[in-house]
Design goal:
four-stranded antiparallel beta sheet
């Protein structure tokens, strides 16, 4: 009877080794997980969450601007403090308060967003994080170094 248990145990150990070897070969033959990760999320909204996107015809050129919400609206972060102190132009690329309707808009397609040694999306992520503004597709962007 002891011989039977030894044979069953030997067969079980051999099958376990074969199964683990097969799993190891399959895992090693797939792409490296770090290389197969794509940009997340795959889509980005043109303006931060709960901000209004407004198309404005400025000198015959239509551009999409994001309207900075009022202080009593959602997702304004600490932007209004920056704007009330008059330092908004130096802190936000594409900020424009000279457009009459609406006032306080930001052009997030301004080329300065990509001219800071970072990609435009990474620069927008830094801006959104530092101003406590949520922006789906930007604040959760995973391809920035910082």
């Amino acid at each position: 009877m002891e011989l039977f248990y030894n044979i069953v145990l030997l067969i079980a150990v051999v099958l376990l080794i074969l199964c683990l070897t097969y799993i190891g070969i399959v895992l090693s033959s797939t792409k490296n997980i770090g290389e197969s990760v794509s940009d997340f999320p795959p889509t980005k909204s043109s303006c931060p969450d709960n901000w209004e996107a407004k198309t404005i015809d400025n000198s015959g050129v239509e551009k999409v601007y994001c309207v900075v919400p009022n202080e009593n609206q959602k997702n304004v972060g600490n932007l209004l403090d920056v704007y009330n102190n008059g330092t908004n132009a130096s802190n936000t690329f594409g900020y424009n308060n000279s457009i009459a309707d609406p006032n306080n808009v930001i052009d997030f397609e301004n080329p300065l967003w990509a001219a800071q040694g970072n990609t435009a999306d990474c620069q927008k992520k830094l801006w959104a994080d530092s101003n406590d503004v949520l922006w789906d597709g930007i604040t959760n962007y995973n391809k920035c170094d910082n």
